[in-house]
Amino acid sequence: MKNKRFIKNAVGLSLIAALFFSQGCKKSFLNATPATSVKATQFWQTSADATSAINSMYADLHNWNDIAFAPIALESMGSDDVDKGSTTNDASFMNEYHFFTVTSGEGQLDGFWTGMYNNINFANQIITNIPAINMDASLKARYIAEATFIRAYDYFRLVRAFGDVPLVLHPPKSAAEFNVPRTPKAQVWAQIETDLTAAASVLPTTYSSADIGHVTKGAALALHAKVALYQKKWADVVTYTNDVTALNIYSLFPDYEKMFRTTNKNNVESIFEIQCMLIPNNPGASNSQYSQVQMPRGTEPATGWGFNVPSASLVAEFEAGDPRLAGTVIYTGQTTPEGDLIDANDPNPYYNLKSYVPFALYVSGFNQGCQQDKIVLRYAEVLLMNAEANNELGNTAAALASLEKVRARAREGNANILPAVTTTDQGALRTAIYHERRVELGMEFDRHFDVIRQGRGAAVFGPSNIPGSQYVVGKSELWPIPQNEIDLSAGTLVQNPGY
User: Fold this and answer.
1) What is the pLDDT of residue 412?
2) CA distance 171 to 121
3) CA–CA dist 42, 14 (Å, integer)
4) ∠ CA(336), CA(79), CA(189), 5° rounding?
5) Which residues pair with 374 in a beta bridge?
């Protein structure tokens, strides 16, 4: 049986591109407009076709499998930062990720896998077909670079979740190319780096207002730094993070809590965020459920689903007086900074403030909070990556300087809290940087992978820290390959050890 799940039909994008988005207006890559399907032989002819394809690629980034349950399960649940949330019996499968008991048949695995390879198919279609279109050369090169970045981003998400994954770099040309074995992760990492280098060499540093939200040179450099971080290429991390800083277009947003509100989308700290909007008269296009699935459950007038909630462990990690706690955690019974009273009878003590949308912005008939963007890369993380890499290289002064910039913003001028870290001991400074990543980036879907790449999985995610955890060294560092994909491949795909 041929595996057509993870590579999809070779003409899929050319059909879908015409379905999703009209081109030519501001934020057009968010505004879905149903249209008649176009045959592959009739598509990829004009600059307008290329724009439609790019718009469709971006639109796919806020679909369910890219931004809701599957990413919460694989990228957030396996962590001491979160609890499942909601009510006890609702979506209890999420606890299988939290306690590292998940088996290969659990559905979110297949959802995540399918979501990532859908995105990769969009990107591959663009990279393969746009070169032949007669259009403005600079726009053509930019579109190809944007698709190359998205392909790298999705392979990054795949390789850190599963390890070896099939590396597909063009639309399949024959039935035999639908069923691809897993590629060694070192080769996947190398391709990600190749893609990001190519993208950074072409992408602009900024866009006009009509194209805000498209990937930039800074996004390619920042993601490259993160890819190098996962491979412990410390000198490369320093190089790429310094390159981001040298662009002189990013800075730390002064108000930590307000940085995540919809009124401050794409602010000076944001390097790349998935664009989501409430589009009047078009609920189908306003399809992001990133906020809805995490918003407080039981609170009227806008009842969310209440999943992926901060843990007591995360709350306890914040130092006394750290304002980032109030910018990360909603407490049951509190009134939010935007004036919404959270029902004291809600089933969970905490909720994720970073995905919160004020109730006044909710519109009946639309997904709750559908206008909330998902920030993927921001400048504070660039500084923390720079600090970590410099510390590993023995560049203590540089590491302390980058760390202090992040703490100084959090300090908000109050000299009595968050004292500067001054230790010159490499181990102690490493611990301080790990702490800072946890509190600065809490609830941003990185803690699970941070701890594992740091080699601390058993200590942090084991039963001493997560009661009931069944974390196993040599197994739990990766999630299982979806059994459905193995079955469809007739055994071409092999399972990760221990599953």
Assistant:
1) 86
2) 7
3) 9
4) 115
5) 274
Ranges of beta strands (E only) in 48-202 are 82-85
Tell me the C-alpha distance between 135 and 154, whole Å: 27
CB 9 within 8 A of CB 121: no
Report the amino acid identity of residue 370.
Answer: C
Q: How confident is the model at residue 413 (pLDDT cuts 50, 70, 90)?
A: confident
Omega prior to 301 cis, within 30 of 0:
yes
Instruction: State the Cα–Cα distance between residues 216 and 270, nearest whole angstrom.
Output: 11
Strand 329-331 and strand 82-85: the pairing is: unpaired
Task: Work out the angle at residue 483's Cα, subtended by the Cα atoms of residues 471 and 290, and round it to the nearest 5 degrees.
Answer: 70
Question: What tokens appear for 271 in the block?
Answer: 């390097």
User: 274 — phi, psi (to 5°)?
Assistant: -75, 120
For residue 82, the cross-strand partners are 310
Strands 329-331 and 350-352: antiparallel
Q: Contact at 8 Å (CB) between 39 and 148?
A: no
Q: What pairing do the DSSP bridges indicate for beta strands 270-274 and 374-378?
A: antiparallel
- From residue 308, how far is each of 296, 376, 457 by CA, in Å? 10, 17, 20
End-to-end CA distance of the chain: 22
Number of Cβ within 10 Å of residue 12's Cβ equals 17
The pair phi, psi for residue 444, each rounded to 5°, is -110, 20
Query: What span, in angstroms and rounded, lies between the C-alpha atoms of 127 and 129?
Result: 6
More confident residue, 90 or 24: 90
The identity of residue 22, as a single letter, is S
Q: What is the per-residue pLDDT for 40? A: 65
Task: For residue 101, report the phi and psi dihedrals to the nearest 5 degrees.
Answer: -115, 10
Residue type, 225: A
Closest CA to 77 of 338, 294, 386: 294
Give the three-state DSSP class for 276: coil
SS3 of residue 123 by DSSP: helix
Whole-angstrom distance, CA of residue 228 vs CA of residue 236: 6
User: Would you say how long the chain is, in residues?
Assistant: 499
E strands, 320-477, in order: 329-331, 350-352, 374-378
For residue 455, the number of C-alpha atoms closer than 13 Å in the C-beta half-sphere is 4
Average pLDDT on 381-389 reads: 99
Closest CA to 11 of 33, 49, 40, 35: 40
CB 93 within 8 A of CB 44: no
Cα torsion 361, 365, 368, 370 to 10°: value is -80
Report the range of poorest mean pLDDT among 4-8, 381-385, 395-399, 447-451: 4-8
**Confidence grade of residue 38 (pLDDT, cut at 50, 70, 90):** low
Letter for the amino acid at 236?
D
Q: How many CA atoms lie within 13 A of 200 on its CB side?
A: 19
Mean pLDDT over residues 185-208, rounded? Answer: 98
DSSP 398-432: HHHHHHHHHHHHHHTT-TTSSPPP----HHHHHHH
